[in-house]
Design a protein that fits this description.
The protein is an all-alpha fold. 66% of the residues lie in helices and 0% in strands. The chain has one domain. The two termini are 24 Å apart.
């Protein structure tokens, strides 16, 4: 699966989870939504995303990434 699709799925899931937690427990959970949104915004300008680094360490590759195992 494409890493960009995984990244969008994780971001969307985190937003929905934080909304659910805010409704059930406390509105302070909306800070998680703020954090996810701020990361998405900064990644749009900088082209880097902390979650992409985590996904790369887990073995996922974006479309167009070179396979470093080949020589």
């Amino acid at each position: 699966m494409d890493m960009n699709r995984i990244l969008r799925g994780i971001a969307g899931g985190m937003v929905l989870l934080s909304l659910l937690l805010a409704v059930v427990f406390s509105w302070w959970w909306l800070l998680l939504t703020l954090f996810v949104g701020a990361n998405l915004l900064q990644s749009a300008f900088s082209g880097t995303c902390p979650m992409m680094k985590v996904l790369r360490m887990m073995g996922f590759r974006a479309v167009g990434d070179e396979d470093t195992a080949r020589t």
